[in-house]
Amino acid sequence: MALLSKATSLALVQNVHRLVGLPNGFPPPEAPPAPRVRLRAPGTRSAEHVDVAVIGAGPAGSAAALIAARAGLKVLLLERGEYPGAKNVSGAAFYGSAIMDELIPRWWEQAPVERYLSRRVLAFMAPETSVALDFRSARFAEPPYNGVAILRPKFDRWFADQAVAAGAFLLNAAVVDDVLWEDGRVAGVRVRRDGGDIRADVVIACDGANSLIAKKAGLQRQFHAHEMSLGVKEVLALDEATIRERFQLSGNDGMAVEYIGSITEEVSGGAFLYTNRNTLSLGIIGQISSLAQHKRRPYELLEGFKAHPAVAPLVRGGTVREYSAHIIPEAGWNMLPKLATGGMMVAGDAAALCFVAGLYLEGINYAILSGIAAGETAIAAYHEQDFSAASLARYETALKARHVLGDFHGYRHAPAMVNSERLQNLYPAVIAHAAEQIFRVRGEPKQKIGPIALEALRQHKVAPVELIQDMLNAGRSFGW
Amino acid sequence: MRIAVCLKHVPDITTVEVDPFTGAIDKSRLLFVTNPADTVALELALQLGGERGRVLGMTVGPSATEAVLRAALAVGATRVLRLWDERLDALAPPLTARLLAAALRGEGMPDLVLCGTRSSDVGSGQVPALLGEFLGWPVITDVTQIELEPHQARVQRRLDRGAREVLEVSLPAVLAVEPGLAQLRHASFPGLMRAQRAAIPVRGVNELGLNIDELVFALPVHQAFTPPRPRSRPIFTPDATRPPHERIAAIVEAGVTRKSGKVLEGAPQPMAEAIVAFLREQGFV
Amino acid sequence: MVTTLEERMRTVRFRVDDRPHILVNAGICKDCSVRACVYVCPANLFVPLDDGGILFNYEECFECGTCYIACDKEGAIQWSYPRGGYGVTFREA
């Protein structure tokens, strides 16, 4: 090919030389067209005006855009990625099937779903041992499915397409840098492009965990490093048959495992593993302050997790298809922003609506719920043409009605509890130690479980006062 | 100034992953972009056209390739055109060039056609040459610089070993530009909105005044051969004892020393044998 | 089987802008002994220099925000997202 192309180009260049100097045998070009009138010089305000501008086409943004567009509002959905989901990372288990069913009936028949999570495992990890609670339910494998495994670049793209089908206008590659103010209330957004000012009656910020827009608008404060965790993740390729066999699954059933304990060594955090159709999603989560304090690199912890004797056989033979990282707002109730102001609401991770409480690791469902609530509030405000702070304060009422704020308030003590040193490392080690003693056969008199447990507590130097305090704390966080 | 730009929708080469065992490309991993050399052509078209310029962006391909035309509209192309026919199932350079030439005839001839010198996927570099042939226009490939003058262009062209040549060519002409010469401008917000809203016109084979039976043809193959594998050359490193400026000069020249030709004399047979021996030694035979 | 960070990073697609979206203030970093950014960055983009400064390579950034959250030096990391159309693009995450 190279030879051919060179020969052609040489011949044609000779042709050019021949042409130069010869009278032009081609018709003369037409007179130049009249100059085009520039409507707007670069950098000036664009004439664009929409009813609702939604920042971020993740689950919260697409839900808000879909709801508002269905009600006939003019909705602009702004996504900074090349496509919705291009910048988004989750585990990803999605436990909002019933909620999604309200929006898009029988959504699972058309959405890119990897597997239905009918098996949930909670594993307590010590360096060489692990104890797991393994739950299976045939009912979770039936519609509307309790939870599903998804891959965000595919799922988010599909969900945004549903908003577009409902009439929302999706614009990719549009980074929003700030909100515009008018008469003391938010009146639009500024996209980082020439002519990027857009007027909007309502701005719904769904710009994710960094929450830059909520901070710019003064609704969110700066984060502390102990409130945020970093998740690093791998998608591993493994063929479908191997996944079914290895995880004892049939058909499209799937499994979600959450690991707590020493899996992130001295760093506060945990790990996860989800089965997809022909890949596994797995990763570790580490509290940012804890990573910094212990000077631990997240990808080394990920490597350690994959090498743990309880995990290595599960990931054996899997090749890395993609590595990714994202932050998670973990402080729940204690880091909720001011949810609304005049002309603006905040939803999803941007509003820190991420439910992290050991047993639970949920965010997409709350993102969709808050997106719906924000969309409905925008519709009500639009009908009354009242976009004041008082009008949009109804968003909070809507979030309460959908049990979002109730969940976060109820579990407000859980994040600190889950990230505490004793729950992170001590108790999983005690449980694993006790389990080892219970199952070990030595040919000596069999001890009863009570003395074994007491001995395990003593060996790990658990102070009785701390234990009782933690039990009360756990009760307050999860029990009542 | 009316400038037509040919744009190709290609996989981003960083997303092309080949299975080492089967040699198959994993299509699920591909992300598509405008061919990098074509984005240079588009940027140069916008610059050369100036405020009064009219830039027509064209591509050949199914509906997914609209993305490159929307991207062109977003940065300021005046008009775009997609050429495709459901009866076509694959692209070949002669077909692409025929469709492009027919479209240009139908749309009113531009003053200049800019192409990327080759695509980053197949990269045969044939379309600009064939397009020039079908239009009956001069073609210059490997272009590194363009200056427009009334009715003609002064063009710098890349030659081997870092050499350049400057050519003058009468317009209209087809110029194929090298990748990396210019970075495509960042679209404005109104441009992006306009591009997203635009309906992209499509021209089929019949609308272009062509006959499908004449387009779907097998390329005549006169002779197929595998060229000999060239001898591998050691990487040149300059003599470390030389002063820096001499070493830099040596690196810039890539270690190539001008060879003087060897002149053979004598009877035809020994000369022929010497030539064959030389070709064999050089790996050509 | 151990996967190196380099192997992992090769699985990610980045469209690199010609301008950095994150700026690191070398003057402030010189007075910092904590250097949390060096450890927490999931792409290992912060490189300590001999002169006490920090070199930041923006090209393969996940845009996660961990660095500025971990950093306790006011003004050391000026953080934003890349321009539209640039930066990381996940295909499967």
Provide a brief overview of the structure.
The complex is a heterotrimer of chains A (480), B (285) and C (93). With 285 residues, chain B is α/β, with parallel strands linked by helices.
Show the helix and strand layout.
The complex is a heterotrimer of chains A (about 475), B (about 280) and C (about 90).
Chain A: H1 2-19, E1 49-55, H2 59-70, E2 75-78, E3 93-94, H3 97-103, E4 115-125, E5 130-136, E6 148-149, H4 152-165, E7 169-171, E8 176-182, E9 185-191, E10 197-205, H5 212-216, E11 228-237, H6 240-246, E12 253-261, E13 269-275, E14 279-287, H7 288-294, H8 298-307, H9 312-315, E15 319-329, E16 340-341, E17 344-346, E18 355-357, E19 360-362, H10 364-384, H11 389-392, H12 394-401, H13 404-410, H14 414-418, H15 421-439, H16 449-459, H17 464-479
Chain B: E1 2-6, E2 9-11, E3 32-34, H1 36-49, E4 54-60, H2 66-75, E5 79-83, H3 93-107, E6 112-116, H4 127-135, E7 139-149, E8 152-158, E9 164-170, E10 173-177, H5 189-197, E11 202-203, H6 212-215, H7 244-252, H8 268-281
Parallel strand pairs in B: 1-4, 1-6, 4-5, 5-11, 6-10, 7-10
Antiparallel strand pairs in B: 2-3, 7-8, 8-9
Chain C: H1 5-9, E1 13-15, E2 22-24, H2 26-29, H3 36-40, E3 46-48, E4 54-56, H4 66-70, E5 77-79, E6 87-89
Overview of this structure, please?
Chain A has 3 domains: 44-112 and 152-224 and 331-402, FAD/NAD(P)-binding domain; 115-149 and 225-330, D-Amino Acid Oxidase, Chain A, domain 2, CATH 3.30.9; 414-479, no CATH class. Chain A is of the alpha+beta class and 480 residues long. Chain A is built from 17 helices and 19 strands. Chain A has helices spanning 2-19, 59-70, 97-103, 152-165, 212-216, 240-246, 288-294, 298-307, 312-315, 364-384, 389-392, 394-401, 404-410, 414-418, 421-439, 449-459, 464-479, and strands at 49-55, 75-78, 93-94, 115-125, 130-136, 148-149, 169-171, 176-182, 185-191, 197-205, 228-237, 253-261, 269-275, 279-287, 319-329, 340-341, 344-346, 355-357, 360-362. In chain A, 36% of the residues lie in helices and 24% in strands. Chain A is globular, with a radius of gyration of 28 Å. With 285 residues, chain B is of the alpha/beta class. Chain B has 2 domains: 2-215, HUPs (Rossmann fold), CATH 3.40.50; 225-285, no CATH class. In chain B, the strands form 2 sheets. Chain B has a 9-stranded mixed β-sheet with strand order 9-8-7-10-6-1-4-5-11, sandwiched between helices. Chain B has a two-stranded antiparallel sheet with strand order 2-3. In chain B, α2 (66-75) runs antiparallel to α5 and α3 crosses α4 (127-135). Chain C is an alpha+beta fold and 93 residues long. In chain C, the strands form 3 sheets. Chain C has a two-stranded antiparallel sheet. Chain C has a two-stranded antiparallel ribbon with strand order 2-5. The model of chain C has no long low-confidence stretch (mean pLDDT 93). Classes of the chains: A alpha+beta (480), B alpha/beta (285), C alpha+beta (93). Chains in contact: A-B, A-C, B-C. Chain A binds chain C through residues 80-82, 85-90, 151-154, 172-175, 177, 191-193, 209-210, 212, 223, 225, 228, 230, 232-235, 279, 288-289, 291-292, 295-299, 303, 307, 320-327, and chain C through 2-3, 5, 7-9, 11-12, 15, 34, 36, 39-40, 42-44, 62-66, 69-70, 72, 80-85, 87-93.
